User: Fold these one by one.
Assistant:
Number 1:
Amino acid sequence: MDPEELGELLRGINYDMDKTEFLVEGFREGFKIGHKGSTPPGYPRNHKVVSKKPWVVAYKLNKDLVKCRIAGPFETPPLGDFVLNPLGLVPKTTEDGRDLPSIALDNPSSYRMITDMRKSKVNEGIPSNLTKVQYTKFDQVIERCISLGVGAYLSKTYIASAYHNVPVHLSDWHLLGFQFQGSFFFDKCLPFGLATSCRIFEEISTAIEAIVHARLHRNEYLDHYLDDFIGSAGGEPQIMF
């Protein structure tokens, strides 16, 4: 995301000045994760699923390396006070929340790779006020749809690889290390498993919603839940989501 263009869009709709500056500076220099105090001890051992499904991890790492979302591989820890965080894999679910069929679990795309920052103690160094998030209530979306009546239009979209689109400030890179098959890496973008990832990304999603709302017409709405966006309209919408 271009920080200067984002700033122009937000200032053009009179968005909160402090939040605008936070987002512009974050995309320009990288977002600080909010860790305070001494360097945590880290935890070098990955979760067992990583050794059971190494091809999944390799696929995920290669994908992120190509997109410059992570740095590596390194033979030795590349940064001072380098903290190792355990890697893990979490199976995704179907759109209706059910477990994926067993045959799909051999597909690397069926997993989300996480960085366990509770075990490494990184999350313990982040003040709780920086991790609190208030999400849109789904009931609010349902009530809006009901109010639009029969024939309302609904649409859904999402931001792919949500957190991995958000750069981290270089002063925090040393806290985002991990290892795989004897090599060292670190995240340059927000990882899944970091306590402040949700809070930072929610600020971004809220700003995106505000920008779109400013361009909507009467009886057209947009709501979001983290990286998922739901559009609704009382008649045929002039803007398709």
Number 2:
Amino acid sequence: MNAETKPVVVINIFTPKPGALDDFLALQSAALPGLRAGATGSRGSRLFRAEDNSKAVMVSVFDTAEDFKRFSESAPFAAHRAKMLQFLEKADAGRYPSGCTQRTVSSRPPLRRPSSMTSAASPSSIGPSCCTR
């Protein structure tokens, strides 16, 4: 499998204007299902709010780099981007081939899932830092 056919992970870090984080997250949460539905090769996204409410992070996965390129150049995304900019001071993005993972060795035992959490826990049930799937 070459780099062109490997899945691509896109990580966006959004720094909102003062007082605009909630509006930004509401816009993103409302727009993601429609944008994803029209994006060939999109495997989905997760949107997170920083615990200190200073930033939001979105992690998206696409089947290939070409699928991401097509999505990022699409008219629906351009229209959405224009709406997002009113809420942002800064947006940083990076692409990461999914094969670039590296395991780390830890001397700590693995975390145990509390018995109250099931394997089907939704992101919103995991904690306040996660906003949407």
